[in-house]
Amino acid sequence: MSKNENDDESPMMSFKLLNIAGRARRGQLQLPHSIVETPVFMPVGTQGTMKGVLPEQLLEMDCRILLCNTYHLGHRPGHNLVKKAGGIHKMMNWPRSILTDSGGFQMVSLSKLMTVDEEGVNFESPHTGEMMLLSPEQSIHIQQCLGADIMMQLDHVIHVLTTGPIVREAMGRSIRWLDRCNAAHTRDDQTLFPIVQGGLDMDMRKECVEEMAKRAKVGIAIGGLSGGEEKSAFWRVVATCCEALPPHLPRYVMGVGHPIDLVICSLLGADMFDCVYPTRTARFGTALVRRGGELRLNQNKYANDFTPIDDKCTCETCQNYTRAFIHAISQKETVACHLISMHNIKHQLDLMRDVQKAIASGDAQEFLKTFLEEQYLGTSVPQWVIDACDYMGYKFSHF
Length: 399
Ligand SMILES: [Zn+2]
Description:
Blueprint: E1 14-21, E2 24-31, E3 34-38, E4 40-45, H1 55-60, E5 65-68, H2 70-84, H3 88-91, E6 97-100, H4 104-110, E7 114-117, E8 120-124, E9 131-134, H5 136-146, E10 150-152, H6 165-184, E11 191-193, E12 195-196, H7 202-215, E13 220-222, H8 231-244, E14 251-253, H9 259-268, E15 272-275, H10 277-282, E16 286-289, E17 293-296, H11 316-320, H12 323-329, H13 334-361, H14 364-376, H15 383-392
Parallel strand pairs: 4-5, 4-15, 5-6, 6-10, 10-11, 12-13, 13-14, 14-15
Antiparallel strand pairs: 1-2, 2-3, 7-8, 8-9, 16-17
Helix pairs in contact: 2-5, 5-6, 6-7, 7-8, 8-9, 8-15, 9-13, 9-15, 13-14
Bound molecules: zinc ion.
Zinc ion (ZN) is lined by residues 309-310, 313, 315, 317-318, 343, 346.
């Protein structure tokens, strides 16, 4: 291990806690390209573009940080080309912060042939069919060419429901790979986040937290979730990791983006999230709303509904278009996907701003009560949500 948490790697990057409410934290993450208020949702731009939303529109919404997929950028346009273009911020016309993933997860999900050994991840390129190796060093090399504010370590990803000795093996390998990533990391205007693994085993998670936290500088991620595990296991892993992690590191729970998950994880003490859900669900005509959770705009009942998606929302879509119009063009025109995506991203950003406000004012319990009432509108609140609330000390007699 060459560096530890006591070597501030750069004054450009730091995390400051502003308020604490129960387990929840409001904070400020200073990155080279922007100050990010946490808890924060990071929209995902796959190939350096957001599906259906322009960077200018994200700026308009005061989005401070995006996630870009290394795997996709590494293939097209290619990391060398991105470097030549002056880095990813310049290439995609995004002046604020960016986080890139390691590329490993996409490889696992896209490659038919994939094996992992100590050297790295061996996979068959879905573009050329040839066998390739992604090592920790190569992942860092690619991410340094891209130049995002936050890079993620390459980790040994296994399916969340995998059990047996492989879970421990993957965890140990991820720690060793973090050391290799740290050694390969040379740019001081980028920070590197370790990823806590350990499956659904709470003792292993705690053990991994200890090792990863020793090596973390600015922040840390909780990985290996949102892969089809029971929600009761999901929230307990998030709670266990947050409890075990030192307070000075922002905690990024990877792949989380459903509004209820964002709210519960934030109140459990997590700080950063990402998910393709708001833009993916927009392609199927679904808009996110506080009242009732989702609005399926393909349904005929919206054909004569001349109200906006959400009358309290200030996004461009809600200011200018009706449910009836979006219903009429839904799944026929790309503009429908664009309009819903803009609303859905704004919905997530506004939700996180409301969570921040609730933490700042000490109204977390009141916020949670109202959020659950609106989200589930008379239907029953899932048991895992009630259990998580109990664990946090919030009691709601009427759910
Ligand atoms: Zn809207």
